[in-house]
Amino acid sequence: MPGxxxxxxxxxxxxxxxxxxxLPHVPELPGRGVTAAMTGRGLAVVxxxxxxxxxxxxxxxxxxxxxxxxxxxxxxxxxxxxxELAQGYEGSFxxxxxxxxxxxxxxxxxxxxxxxxxxxxxxxLAQALAEGIGSHLADLRRRVxxxxxxxxxxxxxxxxxxxxxxxxxASGYGRHRRVDLPEASAHLExxxxxxxxxxxxxxxxxxxPQTPWSLVAGTxxxxxxxxxxxxxxxxxxxxAEALEAGRTAALGIVPSTDPSSAPSDARLTERVQRWLDxxxxxxEVVGERLVVTxxxxxxxxxxxxxxxxxxxxxxxxxxL
Length: 320
What we know:
The protein is α/β, with parallel strands linked by helices.
């Protein structure tokens, strides 16, 4: 969500609780700085690994630096606001965390270069994340007691680049070697299993092109989340099979940044209907497992459009 202040976070919580009564979420406001952005939030959740912020970005260290401590403090402060405003809420609730491969592609080893470059380091980071998500979910469950279904969205925008060998090295002149599909799947499986073991439901999200959705589906994730425009013909069968198998499909369809002319809910509803028709699926059959969302990039919108996009998503869902 857009916003650069802690007060903006509180307003974002009020917005999602008011506009999305069936599936509110813990907002992220990366405009508040690196400790509030996706990688910083992920490092606030991991257990057993220390990190600090260097000029080149986040780096693993021997002891937690001030920035990792700030990231953890900010997360706790944000959850305090969620706890206060969600008093009496009952139903489903969603939170999110950066996935193991996106963290490995954005965090450096102690002596430089990405964690992605070291087989042992990336395994250790994935396991620390899996361990930390259990504690994070326990904290959320204690804070918002009326929630009977905690969904954890695993954000993996870097997954496609990781398996295709497209992540730049520190120099920028080369690319890290591609990660074999079995290893890529295994690290995701650890996190999905940890979420499930903690009583949560894992959805994997990516808004990047060339995401290997068949690999994601094989990890046991209960939901797949993508921008509709980023799904290629090869992904249609994967999403159709997921819906038919009782999994969730979350589709980014509402523009995330201020459009020149606002789309109507009727036109966007029709677009989802055409997509379902192309898959040979009946909206009345899969409707309970279909989620409508804004596309990626909502944090770059104006607050006015962000609020409208969230409301428009809910309207389209009701239409369907």
